[in-house]
Amino acid sequence: MVSEKVRKTRFGKNLGKRIGKSRSHRAEVNVGKISKLTKKGDSIVVPGKVLGTGSIDHAVTVAAMRFSESARRKIEAAGGKAMAIEKLEAKARVIT
Questions:
Q1: Could you report the average pLDDT of every consecutive run of 10 residues in the chain (96 residues)?
Q2: Global pTM?
Q3: Burial classification of residue 28, based on how many CB atoms lie within 10 Å of its CB (0-12 exposed, 13-18 middle, 19 or more buried)
Q4: Which of 4, 19, 33, 61 is 20 to 30 A off residue 87, Cα-Cα?
């Protein structure tokens, strides 16, 4: 799921551990929390699902396992990008 290069880094090991958890133990992060913890142009990884509660007013790139329809819509309306976790960049931060 995640490239070999990323998997060998400390970031990749942490991400793999979080993704390997059962669905009920994965992170669920609201758009409002992403807005609070990021600034324009940031890239983040959510090892779980992004939900649509709250609002976001700046462009961020979010890689996650799943997105609710409203979360994807809000991120893209703010000029950001919602992508599958497989396409993440090594520079992204893990937020839980």
A1: 55 64 76 96 90 96 94 97 77 57
A2: 0.74
A3: middle
A4: 33
